[in-house]
Amino acid sequence: MMKTRDHAGRDRGFIIRRHKAPRAAIAAVASALDRGRRGSHPLRAAALTAAFVASPAAAQLDPPAWTRPTAPFPLVGPITYVGSEGLAAYLIRTDRGAILIDATMEENVPAIARNIVASGVRLRDVKLILVSHAHFDHVAGLAAMKRLTGATVVAGARDAQALRTGIPPGETNYGVIRFPPVAVGRAVRDGERVRLGRVSLRAVATPGHTPGCTTWAMKVTDRGRPLDVVFPCSVTVAGNRLVGNRRYPGIVADYRTSIARLAALPADVVLPGHPEMADVAGRRKAGTLVAPGLLREMAVKARDDFDRELAKQTRAAAEKAR
Ligand SMILES: [Zn+2]
């Protein structure tokens, strides 16, 4: 039921070339935004997108859905989906501005900005951007999104250095895919709360996929119903080196603890960074977003996948050593 597409391209051994959004396009977005500051209008949002349509698309072998724009759609309570089709960004409205979870890739930033505006939130009212983990598919757009909104970036403490340098943590079998560095305004540890207005999110440290991989948990009221909403960080192996990872020696133990933690976390609604893992769009359409057993089910599957991958990597290391 759940497809594992986390860094899937790289898992298949593709060579991926990154490209940067051209500076002229970023400047056009900023200028469209400045005009928009004097009054929000859908045309301003359209201008944000138009500025990027002209950007030359370099050869890219990531799943096409990762950069395919999609219209925003409300989920539960104050939460709206504003990401691309294949990479999630979640907007949470509060009485004191809005919180964004993840910025996805740099080339998605104009479409996400347009989605935020279309959801009735001015870009300058986005006060916080919460980070799931320091991999390019979730954070390469952070720096640009921070420039557009002026928001403070909040991330797991053990990923903060990676975000500040633009170099992902740990060792992988696909090499290093950098992303634009970004200032981290607040580095959080397990159990810390992030508040804006009356909304409060709890950081649940779920290291493994990256050392600072952070699951965010919050309570919402949806049509009078109290619900636990969880934004789980990835627990897929996705090319991570599990055996002999010198930059992340505790990786295996961290994965196991985190998967167990996710399995036990109260979650009525699951909103992951790779939306297809919980079929977010499909569930929303079908009216089945509230699914109390889903996170546990995802964790059980992740544990099976992890065990299989660890066995494979252990065998490969033993063969190499012979
Ligand atoms: Zn990742």
Task: Tell me what you see in this structure.
- By secondary structure, the protein is an alpha/beta fold.
- It is 34% helix and 18% strand.
- It is built from 10 helices and 12 strands.
- The protein is globular, with a radius of gyration of 19 Å.
- Residues 1-5, 8-17 and 33-59 have low confidence and may be disordered.
- Residues 6-7, 133, 135, 209, 234, 238 line the site of zinc ion.
How are the elements arranged and paired?
Blueprint: H1 8-11, H2 23-36, H3 42-53, E1 73-74, E2 79-81, E3 90-94, E4 97-101, H4 109-118, E5 126-130, H5 136-139, H6 142-149, E6 152-156, H7 157-165, E7 186-188, E8 193-196, E9 199-205, E10 214-222, E11 225-231, H8 251-264, E12 269-270, H9 280-286, H10 294-321
Parallel strand pairs: 4-5, 5-6, 6-7, 11-12
Antiparallel strand pairs: 1-2, 2-3, 3-4, 8-9, 9-10, 10-11
Helix pairs in contact: 2-3, 3-4, 8-10
The structure holds zinc ion.
Which cofactors or ions or other ligands sit in this model?
zinc ion
Corresponding CATH architecture: 4-Layer Sandwich
Shape: globular
Beta-strand percentage range: 15-25%
CATH topology: Metallo-beta-lactamase, Chain A
* Mean pLDDT rating: 87
The biggest sheet, with number of strands, parallel, antiparallel or mixed sense and barrel status, is: 7 strands, mixed
What is the topology, as strand order, of the major beta sheet?
1-2-3-4-5-6-7
Number of strands: 12
Count of alpha and pi helical runs: 10
Low-confidence blocks of residues? 1-5, 8-17, 33-59
From the alpha-carbon coordinates, what is the Rg to the nearest angstrom? 19 Å
Say what oligomer this is.
single chain
Helical percentage: 25-40%
Q: Determine and state the CATH class.
A: Alpha Beta
Q: Strand-and-helix sequence, N→C?
A: HHHEEEEHEHHEHEEEEEHEHH
What would you call the structural class? alpha/beta
For the record, give the distance between the C-alpha atoms at the N and C termini, rounded to a whole number. Answer: 39 Å
CATH superfamily: Ribonuclease Z/Hydroxyacylglutathione hydrolase-like
* Total separate domains: 1
